[in-house]
Amino acid sequence: MGGEGWLFLFAVLMAAILLFTMVFFIIMFSDLECDYINPIDLCNKLNQFVLPEMIAHAFLTLCFLLSGQWLAFLLNAPLVGYNVNKIMGKNHMYDATEIFRTLSGHKKESFIKLGFYLVSFFYYLYRMILALISGEWLGW
Amino acid sequence: MSQPLMLPQGWEARWDPQSSAYVYVDQNTGRSQWELPTQPTYPSAHPSSSPPPADASAAAPAHTRSGRRHYPTAQIQQMYAGGGYEQSSQATQQPLAPTYPDQNAAPQFFTPGMAGQEQQQPPQPQYPSQAPGYQQPAYGQQPPVDQMSQQFQQMNMAQKGGAGYADQKQYRNVQTINLIGMQPDVRGLEAPPPPALLPPNASVTQSPYSQPDPSYQRCTLNAMPTTQSLLNKSKLPLALVMAPYRSFRESDGDIPVPVVEDSVIARCRRCRAYINPYVKFIEGGNRWKCCMCGLSNEVPQLFDWDQREGKPADRWARKELNHSVVEFIAPTEYMVRPPQPPVYAFVIDVSQAAVQSGMVATAARTILESLDSIPNADKRTKIAIIAVSTSLHFFSLPAGATEATMLVVPDLTDVFLPKPVDLLVNIDESRAAIESLLSRLSDMFQDSYTVGNALGSGLQAAFQLVGKIGGKIIALSASLPSLGEGALKARDDPKLLGTSKESSLLNSASSFYKTFAIECSSKQVSVDMFLFSASYTDVATLSALPRYTAGQTYLYPGFNASRAEDAIKFSTEFGKVLAMPIGLEGVIRVRATRGIRLSAFYGNFFTRSTDLVALPVVPLDQNYVIELQLEDDLKAPFVVLQAGILFTTCYGERRIRVITQAMPTTDNIGELYASADPTAIASYLTMKAVEKSMTSSLDDARSLVTNNLGTMLSIYKNQVTSAAGASAQLAVPDNLKLLPLLCCALVKHVGLREGAQIPPDLRSYAQALLTTLPTQALVPYIHPRFYSLHNMPADAGTIGENGQVILPPALNLTSERLERHGLFLIEDGQNMFLWVGHEAVPRLVQDVFDIPAYSDLAGGKATLPVLDNPFSQRVNAIIAKTRELRRGVYRPHLYIVKSDAEPALRSWALSLLVEDRMDHMSSYAQYLTTVKNKVNGSS
Ligand SMILES: [Zn+2]
Q1: pLDDT, tens digit, for every residue of B5-48?
Q2: Which of B2, B49, B363, B645 is most solvent-facing, going by the fewest CB within 10 Å?
Q3: Which of the residues A97, A99, A101 would you substitute to probe the B interface, choosing the one with the greatest number of B C-beta atoms within 10 Å?
Q4: Which residues does UniProt assign to the signal peptide (chain A) (predicted)?
Q5: Which of the four pLDDT bands, split at 50, 70 and 90, describes residue B215?
């Protein structure tokens, strides 16, 4: 059975992508603080990535659910809930008129997400290696 | 030291050594009690037997002996008004309190030395009983000797603190006042902020103009804490309140902004600060040391050269070294493009509701009449007119043509211009066509019974027209935008009012207006909204557009031009907006001594970076608040805050107005409190509260105000007066004694008030005003003025020595002052209420309204007739004066309120009397108790 190995390989890649997205967000926020970018461009740029990031994360969580990886699923479910709540409240997008007032909150959120993706990255890596050394993951 | 305590009038504290406690003695009756007295015996309660207010000469020394200081309010005010420190002799020559004619034999304040005179004065004669006019015996202007001497004593005390400032170890005396049981002295609301006590040689020139007038810029604190932890500990807010593009009003004693004529602009190479009175010249005057970052800069070559005369000039006469507010003429490097002309695009709703209400006709007539007053000094001004209903109507106004041609575009989703030229035209070249269009505009749509308003699409069309140049879009709408882009729905569900969900009605319903605002801002376009509604028009959503483009929202609820008052109000205000000498393509940047950081911006603009806000069009007299933080400890003896506004004048000149303010630093928490400016703090709290009401709830917004006040005063009590434990009193520093009143008035203001009766449109509009009015207009908008007219002093309503109409003394905002036979005026700068008591004698009614009896008088919006009798003329003079008293374009409506009819109007007028209990909102006295409990609870 190689399913688990493949799943966690995929998860590792996804976590890496999400990790880089968050790094990108944080860099952009610091750029705004240093006046390297204006709030309108910043929001236009970041808003392109907001939904893809959320969808990617939700898809990964769905994969865990369907493959019965309960622990991984439970780890991710709260963040999915948080994201869905934001979308329902229509405040998931960055608002250029309010960005300076909300900047510290956005930064904090991005850092927390960064930490979360980092932890999940290592967890998925560990699970992948576990599957690898159990010799099952490529099916022979 | 025991807590200095202010007892209510008529009480004296005596130390009882046996019980080691104070016993409180009522000096009138000799009655004594252990409980702290809270109720002063107001003479008004029993005028004939009113107690002699504690005799100043006897009482004060007694208190000194007993280890308590007893500072009568009026006296402290005198010290304060006199500047306290350097102008003490002047202060003693002009005692403030006695020059105020007394109000109706009800002196709420213990005025030392006046006791005897008050006793001699008969109760205020009522209107009819005093035939020869409405005057009142004048007071002797001479303060008694013992009062003078006592004042001198206090001056000396103050001087010891003030004069020794040079060694920087002396602080101002914090005078503690106890508020419970005292009626606030509302005349103090106009007092200037506490002065910033700078070291003697802070300014290079000893110019009297080295600090800006508070109308330009004021700070919540006039002494800067040296560390953020001290600021945090004090719980005082640190924010700049400013209106850099302030109007010039001779009647307010404004001096014109000095303009630096030569284009020598000395700026720091590192922090880009402009040279100002607080820099230091070094190396024999060849270099100057920046007061913000300390960098040594070269003095420009032509700095000491008079270019016009071609000879050396006196450096110390340079305007930028003598004035804290100066304008520089900016050379080309300050321009992104050549100065643009002023551009006005009018988007006028011509749906049935708009035409029927007479809005279209009044607006067109006002524009027509204003064609000569619209800024057009260099004949470049352009205008465009777009009429909007279910489709867009453009008008081609070719130069030289005598008639306008209408072009109709029915497509509302993908807005395009029907013609590339002649839609936005030069006001002079196309004058004939513009005039012909404006005079016919209303008639053109008179018979079109179209219902529907595609305002959003109209705004987009106007944006396409003016976007290339930038300028002002003025939208006039008399119905809810219902079609095309940015269509809105009536969402004013009455069930939401008064609940926590009400704040959703204060937020934008559609993202269109915010997104569009960002687009406008980046293309230097500003939008003004004039809203006329018979029903809900979603001011909350529409006002987002002016908010982020530095425009303004104006609301005319239930507008009907067939009522002369409505038409006059709108056309006066609209005319003033059109004639306003706007600035174009403006940015404001604030710089401060290193260590100070700007942390938040409040006001109508778009924040473009951490220290820069963009104002596509800079309107006159708009207020902005900028919150400050300290990121480093401040080492210097004083700091400098400099606001620079770069803009293009409407006659095509790029200018920089620089406003420099300096203040000393302090590590003493008492000094912070003594230097706090109540008006600026109230302004700051207003901005914070309005923001809170949108992001959270109105309930939280009100708590924010009260909690902020409570924590401030509890820190004051614990850290400055060092009183421990619960107290029956509420101690405040003298300079903040009116802050609780302003906070009480703010939480009861229609913009924040509790209640399920306030239409969301009125609330949103009130919030738009609260966040934009300059402090001069904001204070009366929060805390209205209240005058008694039937018994006003003889000189009230006449022209005074300075050529201005004298206003009657302002009264406390409580209905106790309303008399059944009286005539009163309550005004907040937006509305005026002329209150007529139901027992008003026929003569009064006849003299003022030209109506035989009270019963024939009709309440409601009115214009007062000018009659051939002195009283009518004086009342009219006071009303006219009130209308032009403050900066801004507003012309308040006058409502006649009968004290026993029209309950809605009556309760509206009464709702301005904020010291009273209202529905389930607390009275001022109850509010103080709430604050006191918060203070006691946290100690
Ligand atoms: Zn500098």
Answers
A1: 445 555 555 555 455 555 555 555 555 665 555 554 443 333 33
A2: B49
A3: A97
A4: none
A5: very high
**In this model, does residue B552 exceed pLDDT 50?**
yes
The minimal CB distance from A33 to the residues B522, B606, B610 is found for B610
Give the helix/strand (H/E) hosting A123: helix A99-133
- Distance from the B755 Cα atom to the nearest Cα atom in chain A, whole angstroms: 26
Shortest CA distance to B675 belongs to which of B33, B127, B198? B198
- Contact (CB<8Å) B610/A38: no
Cβ atoms within 10 Å of A4's Cβ, excluding its own: 19
Write out pLDDT tens, residues B518-545: 999 999 999 999 999 889 999 999 999 9
First vs last Cα of chain A: how many Å apart? 9
Number of H helices, E strands in chain A: 4, 0
Encoded amino acid at B432, one letter: A
**Domains in chain B, start-ordered, CATH in brackets?**
199-334+584-666 (2.60.40.1670), 343-486+528-576 (3.40.50.410), 784-910 (3.40.20.10)
Convert B401-416 to b/e letters by CB count within 10 Å (16 or more is b).
beebeeeebeebeebe
pLDDT given at position A5: 84
Please count the residue pairs, one from chain A and one from chain B, whose beta carbons lie less than 8 angstroms apart.
Answer: 29
Rounded to 5°, angle at Cα B193 from B317 and B280: 35
Q: What angle do CA B37, B40, B44 make, to 5 degrees?
A: 155
Q: For residues B690 and B873, what is the distance between their CA atoms, to the nearest angstrom?
A: 40
User: Which residues fall inside 5 Å of ion ligand 1, going by CB?
Assistant: B 268, 270-271, 273, 290, 292-293, 295
Contact list in A for residue B522 (CB cut-off 8 A) is: 40
- ipTM, 2 decimals? 0.84
**Segment B692-747, tens digit of pLDDT:** 999 899 999 999 999 999 999 999 988 888 777 777 888 899 999 999 999 999 99
pLDDT tens, B242-263? 999 999 988 888 899 999 988 7
The answer, for A89 touching chain B at a CB cutoff of 8 Å, is no
Packing angle of the helix pair A70-88, A39-66 (nearest 10 deg): 140
Chain A residues touching residue B606 (CB < 8 angstroms): 96-97
Domain borders along chain A are: 3-139
